[in-house]
Structure prediction request, 95 residues.
Amino acid sequence: MVNIKDYPLRKLADFLQFAYEKEFYERWMTLYPLMEAGFMPYCSFKDYKKKIKENASIKRKNMSMTDEQILKEGKKIVEIYEKNQQKAGEKVGNI
Prediction:
């Protein structure tokens, strides 16, 4: 199994895009029965996804970051994650 930190940055962006796409689809699927029953007007998945992206007002600090800064921040996150990983068979104190 390959560790996620071994993937190139572009591949990680593809993974995130796939995750967002899946989340949009799952949210649309929860509304589909209501559209089918006539409780709300029908909206295709393509239109639904377009509306979500248009209405999203997420402010990202990463917009102005260089690639080096992004990698530096990512390495910090990985280091913290690895530091807090419990080793197999290690006692934590709780069950």
User: Anything to note?
Assistant: The radius of gyration is 20 Å.
